[in-house]
Structure to design on (840 residues):
């Protein structure tokens, strides 16, 4: 009550934001008459003038009115499109590093031109992030006309470009591309062995189109680059054969809300019997238990043509939010292999993670971040808490006149689809275009079969036909058109009404199911009623729909029984629609909690990632790494002396044997003085003598190899060892995260325990990095410089896969000067056989 009163007096936060922006819009408009009189050359010369003013230190905010007006005039001349005042508002919001929520059809693509132009004047590059290659290419060519007219360079990052082409695109003033391409390029750059091979510049300013799809829907799936790991795939096939023998509620239970499936005691006994093992929970069988659980998930929680499709003998993931295929992406932790076994296609080898980052942490690295979408306000809290991004709702250019009808709810899915077909039939007879939204490929094809039986011509747009997507969507507003589509999130193509359609009532949106997120429903609704067009929308639901069945069916079913509803008769009431929206809000809050929780864990990993990547870049920049190597050697020597000697005891009481073993292991034989020489030494004397001998030995190796080769070798060994240990660390962190939840049973906060143990693992990795780097450099034998180059090339050319991955630890690679048999003593001096040491 008080809140409503305060809003009336002071206005909402959004209204106050728009009031503050209004004078800036007026200032942009005031420049218009003078700029309109300029020739093309004079208008283009403004870019040079602006760049000079920026170089002199003038803030971009001071340039905004004139620069926006120049971009507006350039768009009018090159595209014949003059941005409206509401589009200027949207552009200002984007320049301020906020999210502009603009209804579908309000021209978001054009809105971005003005803030992109202003921020590109710094010469530090602007990234415009889209959801697919088609939109990136289309927008870079379409809006690129404006930028090129004003003297800016434009690049586009799409799948299939080589590093040279990528680097050229990133060096442009404006670079279009997809979120996946930008993220993977960042990871790949941090695996390179030379600075000049890196393609990205610093992350300066990004505008993310369909920001809710990228920063929220895809936030739970990290970008992962993985390499092949040697592990048998036969176990997946063996375990897959037993799953059909396990019965639901007897051998396992599943929870659809949390997407989990659990073996019962009877299930464990049955699995043990079928697999021929005594105890599935024996530590030796933990890998087998994990395979059983993943196979159960594959069979009970993942549906063909809903979560994935099988195409050309491969299991391809279907994006649950956009309905798009995601070739090259794989489920992690062996789940993808379990699905391949289930579908009877070739089971691919497991992969090992080489590099990983979440979209949250990638996009938070930009100095300034902004976004646009038609639906962000429902997730405003999440944008504020996780990304520190404020959502500003931009008014429409023309009033919205679309009619949103209340939901119709039926008892069964069969009744619902019959009603859907009947409505499509009636509207088609009138000539009104209809866009039907479905939640899965399976449902879209079922509805298509029903329409074929009724003789209604229609188009089906889903992940199986996405190459025709733009053409199909563009025609969806023509008279009599019927288009069935999976989720419309981020389709990016306007539906323009054909001749005479507006008079018939415009495009009708027919949703066949509610999504867990209201945002996705609003995106579907938003396809109608663009720029003041007429239109309407209605959702048809049934008590058998997932959202209704899991969250709201009991209450509404009871209501249907009490009022004596007949078969085929729907409930249609605003109260019911509100009840469903409340259920969606609860699911949204739950999902936000999951994403926030995951981010808290990933933040720990992110801090470590930043340290490692910073060290890598420093190593690449440094040129001469000898001081770094010698610092490592001195730290290790000090650790050895501290652990084997004691200031308060005589030399004969020291652990001389341990001292000799450790010094020989790391630095080679012949460095430790004899017992007689050590008799009168203090630990400090010993440290000084040993450090002198270590330095002399390293200098001798440098003279032997030559300074140039030694610098190359230091660079290669440090980076190779760092990459190898980082891969191991990623695997260890995955295992730590899997089991950390159990700490709650011991009255420990799992997150606190995770941070503590992750820190210990990281410290251990850094210590091993020093040990391995020093040990290899003091023992390696190289006959010719070409061997170092061959090693580097071999490392750079390792196969990589993109998407969630898993797998065992990668073996370390150490190049020796001569061929060594697997059972020979290892040349590193460890005393072990070569196959058990460096030859692993």
């Amino acid at each position: 009550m008080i809140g409503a009163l305060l809003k009336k007096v002071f206005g909402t936060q959004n209204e106050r934001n728009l009031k503050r922006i209004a004078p800036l819009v007026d200032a942009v408009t005031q420049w218009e008459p003078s700029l309109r009189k300029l020739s093309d050359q004079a208008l283009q010369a403004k870019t040079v003038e602006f760049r000079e003013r920026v170089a002199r230190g003038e803030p971009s905010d001071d340039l905004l009115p004139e620069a926006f007006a120049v971009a507006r005039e350039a768009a009018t001349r090159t595209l014949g499109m003059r941005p409206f005042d509401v589009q200027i508002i949207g552009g200002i919001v984007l320049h301020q590093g906020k999210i502009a929520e603009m209804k579908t059809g309000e021209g978001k693509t054009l809105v971005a031109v003005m803030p992109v132009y202003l921020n590109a004047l710094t010469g530090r590059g602007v990234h415009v992030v889209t959801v697919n290659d088609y939109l990136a290419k289309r927008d870079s060519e379409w809006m690129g006309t404006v930028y090129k007219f004003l003297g800016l360079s434009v690049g586009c990052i799409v799948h299939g470009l080589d590093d040279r082409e990528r680097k050229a695109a990133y060096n442009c003033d404006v670079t279009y591309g997809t979120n996946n391409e930008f993220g993977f390029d960042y990871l790949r750059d941090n695996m390179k062995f030379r600075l000049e091979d890196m393609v990205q510049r610093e992350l300066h300013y990004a505008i993310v189109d369909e920001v809710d799809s990228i920063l929220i829907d895809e936030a739970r799936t990290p970008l992962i680059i993985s390499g092949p790991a040697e592990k048998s795939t036969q176990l997946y096939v063996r375990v897959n054969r037993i799953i059909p023998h396990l019965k639901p509620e007897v051998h396992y239970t599943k929870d659809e809300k949390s997407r989990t499936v659990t073996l019962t005691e009877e299930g464990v006994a049955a699995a043990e019997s079928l697999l021929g093992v005594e105890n599935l929970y024996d530590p030796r069988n933990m890998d087998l238990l994990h395979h059983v659980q993943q196979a159960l998930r594959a069979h009970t929680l993942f549906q063909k043509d809903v979560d994935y499709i099988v195409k050309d003998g491969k299991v391809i993931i279907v994006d649950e939010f956009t309905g798009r295929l995601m070739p090259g992406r794989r489920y992690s932790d062996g789940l993808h292999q379990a699905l391949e076994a289930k579908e009877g296609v070739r089971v691919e080898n497991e992969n090992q993670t080489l590099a990983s980052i979440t979209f949250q942490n990638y996009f938070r690295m930009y100095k300034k971040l902004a976004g646009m979408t038609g639906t962000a306000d429902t997730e405003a809290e999440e944008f504020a808490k996780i990304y520190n991004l404020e959502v500003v709702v931009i008014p429409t250019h023309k009033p919205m006149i679309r009619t949103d009808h209340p939901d119709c709810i039926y008892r069964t899915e069969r009744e619902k689809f019959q009603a859907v077909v009947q409505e499509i039939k009636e509207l088609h007879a009138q000539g009104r275009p209809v866009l039907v939204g479905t939640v899965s490929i399976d449902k879209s094809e079922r509805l298509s079969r029903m329409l074929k039986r009724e003789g209604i011509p229609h188009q089906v747009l889903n992940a199986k036909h996405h190459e025709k997507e733009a053409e199909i969507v563009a025609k969806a507003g023509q008279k009599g058109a019927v288009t069935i589509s999976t989720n419309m999130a981020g389709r990016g193509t306007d539906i323009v009404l054909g001749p005479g359609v507006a008079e018939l009532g415009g495009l009708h949106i027919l949703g066949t199911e509610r999504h867990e997120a209201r945002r996705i429903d609003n995106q579907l609704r938003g396809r109608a009623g663009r720029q003041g067009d007429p239109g309407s929308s209605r959702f048809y639901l049934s008590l058998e729909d997932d959202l209704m069945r899991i969250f709201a069916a009991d209450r509404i079913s009871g209501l249907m029984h009490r009022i004596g509803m007949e078969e085929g008769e729907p409930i249609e009431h605003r109260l019911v629609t509100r009840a469903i929206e409340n259920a969606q809000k609860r699911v949204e809050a739950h999902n936000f909690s999951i994403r926030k929780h995951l981010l808290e864990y990933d933040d720990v990993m992110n801090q470590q990632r930043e340290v490692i990547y910073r060290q890598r870049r420093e190593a690449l920049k440094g040129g001469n790494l000898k001081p770094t190597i010698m610092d490592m050697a001195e730290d290790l020597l000090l650790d050895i002396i501290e652990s084997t000697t004691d200031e308060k005891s005589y030399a004969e009481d020291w652990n001389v044997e341990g001292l000799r073993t450790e010094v020989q292991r790391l630095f080679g034989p012949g460095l430790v003085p004899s017992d007689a020489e050590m008799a009168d030494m203090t630990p400090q004397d010993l440290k000084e003598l040993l450090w002198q001998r270590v330095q002399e030995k390293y200098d001798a190796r440098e003279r032997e190899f030559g300074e140039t080769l030694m610098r190359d070798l230091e660079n290669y060994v440090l980076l190779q060892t760092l990459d190898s240990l980082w891969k191991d660390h990623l695997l260890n962190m995955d295992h730590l995260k899997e089991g950390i939840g159990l700490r709650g049973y011991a009255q420990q906060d799992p997150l606190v325990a995770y941070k503590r143990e992750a820190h210990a693992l990281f410290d251990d990795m850094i210590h091993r990095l020093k040990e391995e780097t020093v040990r290899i450099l003091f023992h390696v034998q190289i006959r010719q410089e070409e061997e170092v180059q061959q090693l580097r090339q071999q490392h750079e050319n390792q196969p990589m896969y993109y998407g969630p991955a898993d797998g065992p630890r990668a073996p370390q690679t150490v190049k020796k000067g001569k061929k060594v048999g697997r059972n020979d003593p290892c040349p590193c001096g460890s005393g072990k056989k070569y196959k058990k040491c460096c030859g692993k």
